[in-house]
């Protein structure tokens, strides 16, 4: 998983910087006969604080082995999402450094039933990312990559074939994220962007209580479970820069 995500990150960074370089080639330059190496700054100042709204979609994958049935489950939830973000940028020439935090509400929910008729459900209702951004600005366009910490709530539950219930409760998970996007300045203060983010949330203290062997549901103490949970989201957003 780690090597695949690293390759995705490298490819994403290359694609973003390639897009910025292509846009750079289209920016009109001054008369080269007099000042062949003159730098012409971007027409939009990205420096400063901003806040905005976002909306889009998310899909996830929760791979685990049910501690009660011993069978592997792989629910794949998908949903729409909405939320907001706040951040600050610093720019020098065309290079941008920034910090951004967002909070997103969603109903990422899915369940699967394994071969022994145990049902596993995973549910997430909010996600928050706190990231650093590195970008390259050309005229009204900003191409960037981002990475940092991710936080989300995660609820895992198991239903036995007889209808017995075991539940991890609502647990706050934390992990990491990597992503990138393109932002366009509509005016000196308003901008719009599209963005992709990959989120990895390693299992943190998932303990299920309540179900026994197949066909029986009774108190058996706690059963630990390790869930490999990832979320991918694609959003469109609008920002107001102060």
Account of the 3D structure:
The chain has 242 residues and is mainly β. Helices cover 10% and strands 61% of the residues. The longest helix has 24 residues, at 2-25. It is elongated. The two termini are 40 Å apart.
Topology:
Elements: H1 2-25, E1 48-65, E2 72-73, E3 78-92, E4 95-113, E5 119-138, E6 141-159, E7 165-185, E8 190-201, E9 206-209, E10 222-225, E11 228-241
Antiparallel strand pairs: 1-2, 1-3, 1-11, 3-4, 4-5, 5-6, 6-7, 7-8, 8-11, 9-10
Strand content: over 45%
Reported CATH architecture: Beta Barrel
Structural class: mainly beta
Rg, Cα atoms, Å = 23 Å
**CATH topology assignment:** Porin
Element string (H = helix, E = strand) = HEEEEEEEEEEE
What is the general shape?
elongated
Could you give the distance between the termini? 40 Å
Tally of individual domains: 1
In DSSP terms (H or I, runs of 4 or more residues), the helix count works out at: 1
Concise description?
The chain has one helix and eleven strands.
Features:
242 residues, mainly beta, Porin, two-stranded antiparallel sheet, 1 helix, 11 strands
